[in-house]
Amino acid sequence: MKKVVTLSPEAFAGACGRLEAATSRPDVVLGIETGGRFVAEAMHASVPHCYVRLQRAATPRKSRMRGLLARLPRPVADALRLVESWLRSLRRPVPVEFRGELPAALRGKRRVLIVDDAVDSGATMLAVREAVGRALPGAAVECAAIVVTTRRPLVVPDKYLYDNVLIRFPWSMDARR
Fold this sequence. Notes:
The chain is an alpha/beta fold. It has six helices and seven strands.
């Protein structure tokens, strides 16, 4: 059975250090907002960083429940996460299109590291990776995430630390502050 892992700020910092050590040194780090920003900011401090935003449709709806989720007893919050993950597993992942503009900081770069906190369906990371590939033909593009939460996402990052678990990050809606 899938489990929920809670990362304290210290454990999160350690995870980012391990993920950085597993990746190649890029010319630029591209973080996927919002969780990917936190991961990107903790990695490869000596290279430029930039960010893009592309979220699942449900994310803004869930954010309205932030206060309630953070006050739930941990077993209840874990159960809700597990139910959400199970419901997501019943649906086939649907690709999304990246319609925004890529940051100017990517221009001319040959080694790009795309970073997100979690890959669920893989639709977001796939869309960003394809957009970067179109904008920078011939560039080496590496993808990294702390966790892959599902068995068959549309794209699996080149590097990740956890597989088929759910992670409560320090900024998660149900994290206690």
